[in-house]
Amino acid sequence: xxxxxxxxxxxxxxxxxxxxxxxxxxxxxxxxxxxxxxxxxxxxxxxxxxxxxxxxxxxxxxxxxxxxxxxxxxxxxxxxxxxxxxxxxxxxxxxxxxxxxxxxxxxxxxxxxxxxxxxxxxxxxxxxxxxxxxxxxxxxxxxxxxxxxxxxxxxxxxxxxxxxxxxxxxxxxxxxxxxxxxxxxxxxxxxxxxxxxxxxxxxxxxxxxxxxxxxxxxxxxxxxxxxxxxxxxxxxxxxxxxxxxxxxxxxxxxxxxxxxxxxxxxxxxxxxxx
Length: 274
Description:
Layout: E1 7-16, E2 20-22, E3 26-28, E4 31-35, E5 40-44, E6 61-69, E7 78-91, H1 98-106, E8 113-114, H2 117-127, E9 131-134, E10 138-146, H3 149-172, E11 192-199, E12 208-211, H4 215-224, H5 226-236, E13 245-250, E14 258-264
C-alpha cells in the first residue's frame, strides 16, 4: 500500500466530541472542520488531552496542520493528521455578527448541506458522504438515556487494558521515551447519553433519534449533571429563538448510522437562518 502524502492545510475547526478510549492512541477526540474552500474534513487521530498546550485548539479556531487522506478509511472526508505539525491560528472571534462570519466559511461549500435526512442518505450511498449539516424542522423530544452496567464494565476493562499496554511498552523501551506516557489520564465514564428526537424538512419524515456527542454538552453533563445538560440542549433547540442546525457524522463500521457531533445555534435575526 502506498504511503499517505501529507500536505499542509489550513482548517477551521467546528466540532470536537467527548474523548473515546483507544488502545493505540490512549484516547481520541473526533474532530471535524472545513478547509479554506469550505470542504468538510474529519481529522484522526487526535489524542486531544495528551497534546501540548500550544496545540490545543478551540472550536471555530483556524489551525494549520499536515494532513493526508486516510488509506484505511473509505470515507472521503477522513484524513490522518500529524499532530506534531499543528499550529494555532486566529479564532473567529465573537462580534455582533459572530455567526455570520463563521457561516461565510463553514457553509461555503454546499455539497455537505442537506435539507432532509433522505438527501444525506442518498449522498452517503452514492459518494460515501460521512459528514452532513441538516436543519431540523421540529424538535419532538430530548431524552436522557442511562447507560447499562455492561457498558460501564466494558469501559473499565478498556481502561485496564490500556494501562497494561502502557506498562508493557515501558518495559521494552527507555522509560524516558516521550511517546510513552507514565500512565493514562483519568477519563470519566459518562453514565448517561443525551438523545434528540427530531423531524427534518421532508413532508414524509417519521422522525430521527440521534445521540449528541458534542464535547461541550457532554462535559456539562459530566460536571453539573444530566438535567443541566438537558436544559442547555432544550434552550439551543428552541427553534423559535435559534436557527439550529445539526452537524452529523457517521460511524466507520456502520456508515448509515449518524450521530450529532456538533451544534450550530445562532439566534434568529431579521429572518436569517444562520
